[in-house]
Design brief:
11 helices, alpha/beta, 2 domains, binds iron/sulfur cluster
Length: about 300
Amino acid sequence: MPISNKPQLQSPPFNINDVKVAFDCPRLFYLKQSFGGDYLFLPQDYIPEIDRAFVDLVNQLINMIRQESKVQVLFTGQFEGLEVGAIANQIQQLFYELIFFPYLQTIITKNISLATCLYEVWQVLIKIIFHITEIIVKNRRYCHESVVFRRTLIKGEIPVDYTFKIPDGKAQKLTGKVNNLIFDFESRRLCVFHFQTYETAEVSSQLIEVALYSFLLKQKKKVPVDTVVYWVLPELGEYYYSWKKLESVVECLVPGKLEEMREWLRWERFQSDPPPRTEKEYLCDICPQRERCQSFFERSG
Ligand code: SF4
């Protein structure tokens, strides 16, 4: 599918999230663009406190690794003498004492039933600590200890955009913001870390979403961008996506979908041929706009 850098713009930009929603369900995409409102498919046993805790703890962990002198001293000396397992264990201990344990106490004082889920959060944090430690140790081969943290853990949110040429020959701009980026000097690659509390309800649309973040970032940074996704519940897990796979996903699936998205938005209520329902019926059971969907598209088929 053709992708071009310099086509003429003809439509307001979409963001990456719009594309994910459109892959999940064309009707939900239409409702979101027309009326706003929720568009996340959250599980029925969704616990907002755990969601907030995971995001907050991950941010605190990355800040601690980047700034805490007791962590930085663990990576000093000759890189050949650095042992990933031993360093990760010490970071784990420091993080537990300085941040996780006080956090745990505050939360379980308010609601003891959250303790089990926080244990799951802790298990994912251990994996993340190990993975980040591994990359920093590898990068010490190429970077002095005084710069390895800021050159490995890239700070801040990076705006990205790209203009696709869609099959009808027109152009569609896509925008997004990427954070939690890690640079691996050995492979000369970036890796985007996605942290989410719940395993996604729809894996294929998540693949599109992470592929787009990688693709747009690659256009800006000019190096391959891999992705790793961590989640906590219902069971902790992780997916790793290589750049090669992500690039082909975007090239095959995105330009055609952008064209469909523009067509769906031209539809008006009570006309025939509305945007189609989701193909994954189980999503309707957890859809945040189910009632509006039923009433809004009622007489359009
Ligand atoms: S109820 Fe089903 S078809 Fe309607 S917007 Fe939600 S997911 Fe899509």
